Amino acid sequence: MKEKLKKSVKPIIRIVAFILVFAFVFVFLTYTSKPGDLRNSSRIYGLYAEKKNTLDVVNIGGSATFVYYAPLQAWENHGIVSYDYAAAGVQAELYKHMIEEVLKTQSPELIVIDARAFQYRDAENDGSQPPSEFTYRTTLDGMRLSMNKIRFINENVGTRIEDDDKLSYYLDLIKYHGHGYPNKDKMKLMLGIYKEKYNGFFLEAKNQELTKCEFNTTDKRPVSEDTEKVLVDLLEYIKQIDCEFLFTVSPYLEKEEHKQTFNYVEGIIKQYGYNFLDANDYIEEMGIDYSTDFYDEKHVNILGATKYTDFLSRYMIDNYDLPDRSDDPAYAFMNDYVDEWHKDIDASKEKLSEILEDNSNE
Amino acid sequence: MTITSLNFFVFLGLTTIVYYLFPKKYRWISLLVFSLAFFSLASIEVAGYFVFGVATIYISSRLIGEKLTTQKAKKATIVIALAFNIAMLFLLKYINIIPNTINGFGELFNIDFHLGTINLIAPIGISYYTLSMISYLVDVYWTTIPAEKNFFKVMLFSCYYPCLISGPFIRYTQMKSEFFDNGDFEWDNIFKGFHRVVYGLLKKMVIADNLAIIVNAIFADTDVYSGPFIVIGVVFYALQIYCDFSGCMDIVIGASKLYGVKLPENFESPFFSKNLSEFWRRWHITLGSWGKDYIMYPLLKSEAFQKLNKKSKKKFGKKLGKKIPVFLAILILWVIIGIWHGASYKYIFAAGILPWIYLTSSELLEESFVKLRNKLKINVESKWFHIFQSLRTLFMMCIVWLFALAPSFTQSFALIADIFKFDPTVVDPFISEVIMGDHTLYAVLFKWAVIVVTMLGVAIVDYLKYNNVDVAEKFNSCNHIFRFALLIAMIGVTLMFGVYGPGFVPADFIYGGF
After folding, report:
1. How close B331 gets to chain A, by Cα (Å)?
2. What is the DSSP letter of B422?
3. Domain boundaries along the sequence of chain A
4. The whole model's pTM is what?
5. Which residue from A291, B203, B245, B386 lies 20 to 30 Å from A59 (Cα-Cα)?
6. B514 touches chain A (CB under 8 A)
7. Which residues from chain A sit within 8 angstroms of residue B513, using beta carbons?
8. In this model, does residue B506 exceed pLDDT 80?
9. Spatial separation of the C-alpha atoms in residues A49 and A187, rounded to whole Å
10. Angle, alpha carbons B50-B51-B56 (nearest 5°)
11. A33-361, which class in CATH?
């Protein structure tokens, strides 16, 4: 009897052990197969490496966040501990799930949401970037597999975007296998210790000379039904969360119809009692120069980012109860990359000034 | 549901569990239900052909085996049943050879017959199940086996789903005990079946499907890729077709093993064969043996061939005379095998007539070769001579595959002529577009290094099998940790480098412009 039991239990133990080892190998391969360039999703991965419950501000959005707000500058100048939890081309429907992911490890005082996603989401709008595989994957690929991620995929893939291979959204090894190879960064990702040195900020030292669009409008241009639904869903969700929220529009070459869209979006947001800050209304106050501070119509360069970071930081300090952590020894880790940051920002500014000089000579 | 799809493995996993939940006596019923479900998922709209085919075979086998008493009546019954099933197979799969032939002859004489082709939907695995059913009926006719009384048992034998995908051809005599007297649940079947499936996936998805990318690129554009590209392409095709077909067989045999049903082997290390007749005994074994047993030997035993034998002996002498009917029977067999491979003349030539030319000429020249070897004092037992023989066999087979790869029979000669041309300017685009594709250099090097190591692994396994080593048994007797690690490594390599999923084009994911 004992022998018989042993005979049937042993294979089951072998199978369970096999499944466990296989699961580990699967995770290892998933990270190893990631394409070499991690920048698309690096800020999403990077959140997992942040010390638990240390972030006071989390900026959520797309490039309108991570090339605009420099957390290390905000730390040095204002003692704000923040992180840019953002991915290129982010879609507004991801916000709810990004917030949920943030709240798993952090309890911020304030979450800043990039409202530009509500403007570029509608295909008929100027400069639109509607939902697509790319704009979903940049964020999803950086998220660990969880019920939160699964819910997003179930709700959106196959409905808001077409995709025959839904499984590859859950298990991105199916998508990327064969393209990657093991390296140090990927191993760090797997272990959850991949640190975004500048807390998600991306330095851009290019220039495009722009001319501000002059207009003054209070008209409201409605967003699409679906975008409004996404916005209302988000507002309904965040009103249950014990945290402050601020919606922002970062400086760019804002056009009249964009402003009208933001007026509409602002109206809905304010109904829920949240602040809405269109930084394009404060260009002079920020000291933004359209000839030097942008690198394309949609994004500021490092000069513009420096000015915007100081402006937004002051706004947050004035309007929210944000602690100054600069003298708190528990936050000394924020200084780990400050020296490197200075070197990088000096080099970027120097490069940019050379470009500007060349442009003026032409 | 393809054999490498997730759906197939979910189906396989669930049916394996359900199978063992059935009482031992009724497990074959569950297999029939799974097979019909599999068949229906693929071919529900043409299931009628299958049911009708099985019904004719079942009824005629019962008549032949039990009811009919005269040989004449039995013969008439089997002829009708076989004609009916062969006609159905021909109609559904090979009918287009008729308009293609007429149009082809018309072209020769500048006449445009303009006959259209017919696209009928054939049930999944029709050529496999038809030949298996024929073997059953003929065995009943020959009284090798009694007629099965239970219609559903004949149905299971005909549509056992692992065999519907790409064989092997099964015989009722082999399978009866496997299906209907299946033993107790054994973990050994589960583990061995799983190992075999994993090994098959590795061969198919990692080696065959990656080589296919290169082979397809070359043979899709032979105007551009000539000379060494064609040589490389056909050698890669040899490896691809072997790993693809034998990999599928490993998956099928492994899947069947999960139910405790042992299927016949279809490949036995063919690339180590010393000559072509050995190669064909080791390549698609069940097709070859089916052809011999149900086409060649009956032909040789037939009255017409007996008469021919006598006549040719008289005319050409005893030695050569007795070979002529054999060569003719082999020719008929190979032409049928050629047609079975595809309804086109290139297959009739490449997979039929050319192998026949090889086999008959090597038979006729055998004595001269022996004399030459003796004169050159070649040690036929040496390893080097074996390597030479294997490479020579592979070379001959590459010519066969070259014909099969050509778009048509007439274009195949132009393809051979292209081997002697070479345009060096296409090397760079070939590397950047086909080899590199959208991968980084580092990722490509890493991937191909792993594929080469995998191919070496497969070669070692085949070499051991060629030397009669029971690799599966040897593997099972290895240390647990080693087995575990090797299995995990095989799965890992398949997941990482196998060709599957939607694919990823980095250009779609470029960062620029956000």
Report:
1. 46
2. -
3. 33-361
4. 0.84
5. A291
6. yes
7. 296
8. no
9. 13
10. 100
11. alpha beta
